[in-house]
Amino acid sequence: MGKIGALLGTGATSAKVLTSAGIVRPYSPLTLAKVGRTVLAWGTGPAGGFASMALRNPDGVALVDELGSLTFHELHARSNALAHELRKRGVVEGDGVAIMCRNHRGFLDASLAVAKLGADALYLNTAFAGPQLAEVIARERPRLVVHDEEFTGLLSAAEIDQRLLAWVDGPTTADSLEALITVGDRSELAPPKRHGRVVILTSGTTGTPKGAPRSEAGIDAAVALLSRLPLKYGWRTHVAAPMFHTWGYAHLALAMLLGSTVVVSRRFDPEEALRVTEENRCDSLVVIPVMLQRMLRLPAETLDRYSLDTLKVTAASGSALPGDLALEWMDRFGDNLHNIYGSTEVAYASIATPEDLRAAPTSAGKPPYATVVKILDDHGREVPTGEAGRIFVGNGMLFEGYTGGGNKEIVSGLMSTGDVGRFDSEGRLYVEGRDDEMIVSGGENVFPKEVEDCLCRHDAVVEAAAIGVEDDEFGKRLRAFVVVAGEATEEDLKDWVRANLARYKVPREIAFLDELPRNATGKVLKRELHQL
């Protein structure tokens, strides 16, 4: 009875969340039957998800980019045409197709076409260096590479058998997606026997990026996110975060259920992001934290031009919110910020609501529906509330092991995120830093993030990062790097840390930079800081 009751409770929770989001809504019996057959045949991944939206809301605007808008029906027809043409070029079930695109229609055209063929989509980071790209392509051996024309030079060192251009800066060429879509057969394809996978690359901040494959998400993954992220059916969503990474891609997956209009721009510019959000009257904004920092760094007179009065949810993920960034955003644009903590490997782990962030601005919030997060010691035992340990996560979206071999550590079905954290008495998770970044200074454990947050709270500091370096007195100390927008000396900032944290946490030195080195998802490249 207990197991049956748990299942019924789970079903009731899912129904409540889906109804609240507007996903459960009335359709004609004929439409429901068609949608049911489509999902059974194509699954819940991109192919089935967007095909079902083409049935449920064919004339709804699915995508807005710099070239205009596309409906769900148009997206479906375009990807059919491209899939037929890719098949002519030898792409079959089980193949890999690498996609290196900025946020525009070509990203979605390629993703859907590859999924309809039962092939795997490997997303390449647009900020990777040439040698990284060459190494990834050599390891993954994709049948074909789809990339924006601007990346031709970066990919020159990679051994590529076939390539197609996605975004072309000049006239359309014969080897472009748009050319193939124009001539391609738009008829329906037969569903593949194998559903394609999505392969997201890790950030590569500490070495060669690894491929993290994931099969299509089930409804539980959407329910988990929507249980603490109040997105609604039919909203207009500005996805400013790169779609080649987990967070941006997640909102394409949600759009398949929510019938969202996804609004994108190829490049992020802080004022342009505000303008696009306001002019398109977007209900939600999807960002990485550094984007919030850059927007809030705009002059006050610029910020005052944008009220974002339609914005109901700002969803941030990809790295920690530094200092009081959450409060700064909400004080200006309202209590709409949600901070999602996860990783490429575990997808999502916890979500901080505006209420959480008001009470604890650096909190990662609480686990959503059907998600287990535990803090374990080095022996795999759960630690008491308030104590720090390694963060382990269980949900329906754990990845399947790296494409090149290997996996994250798993304990009792829970996967390591590679971070250290703790829970407070309210059940909120705090991420204290990467487990490999902790240093022992004067016999005490020190995490760079605590010092980074402290520095970021100084009025003159825009952003900060810290790394461990050898020290004769303490064994190890932190070396900090700051970007400032006001008057502050190294001693001023050391005094600030000394006044707020223990003496052994004061950085041995503080260097001033014009900007911190970051990858395309906003993570600081600390390996580059070690070389400075």
Treating each run of at least 4 consecutive H or I residues as one helix, how many helices?
A: 17
Quaternary state of the chains: single chain
Number of strands: 24
As for the number of domains, it is: 3
Characterize the biggest β-sheet: 8 strands, mixed
Share of helix, binned: 25-40%
| Shape designation | globular
CATH topology of the largest domain: Rossmann fold
Radius of gyration in whole Å, from Cα?
23 Å
Low-confidence stretches: 1-9
Strand line-up in the sheet with most strands: 2-1-10-9-11-12-13-14
CATH first level of the largest domain:
Alpha Beta
Arithmetic mean of pLDDT? 91
* Name given to the CATH architecture of the largest domain: 3-Layer(aba) Sandwich
Helix- and strand-based class?
alpha/beta
User: Terminal Cα separation, in Å?
Assistant: 62 Å
User: What percentage of the residues does DSSP assign to strands (E)?
Assistant: 15-25%
